[in-house]
Amino acid sequence: MNTEKENILTQVRETLVELFDLEPSEVVPEAKLYEDLDIDSIDAVDLLIDLKKSTKVDLTPAQFKQVRTIQDVVDVLAELSVKA
Fold first, then answer.
1. How many domains would you assign to the chain?
2. Rounded (5°) CA angle 49-43-68
3. Per residue in 25-40, pLDDT tens?
4. Is 54 helix (H, G, I), strand (E, B) or coil?
């Protein structure tokens, strides 16, 4: 994983830990948001809003709807930050 993606993963991990009282060890790239981390659709909206603020990346609900794992979130944010 490159440095940019590692930084994004750290931000995503910190956000999830803060918002949903998860253990940092649970927030690994292969963790599934809905199944493994028990995030529901309302939580996903909160996560989307927080990530938009913390990463300054304009992530749309449609783009976020495609993500399933932490790695998917990292990949989408990395891709959008390059385009920004």
1. 1
2. 90
3. 999 999 999 999 999 9
4. helix
Could you give the CA distance from residue 16 to residue 51 in angstroms, rounded to a whole number?
A: 10
In contact, 37 and 31? CB cutoff 8 Å: yes
3 state DSSP class of 66: coil
Task: For residues 77 and 58, give the distance between their C-alpha atoms in angstroms, rounded to a whole number.
Answer: 9
CATH of the domain at 73: 1.10.1200.10
On whether the pTM is more than 0.85, the answer is yes
Cα-based distances in Å from 46 to 1, 15, 16, 20, 60: 26, 10, 10, 10, 13
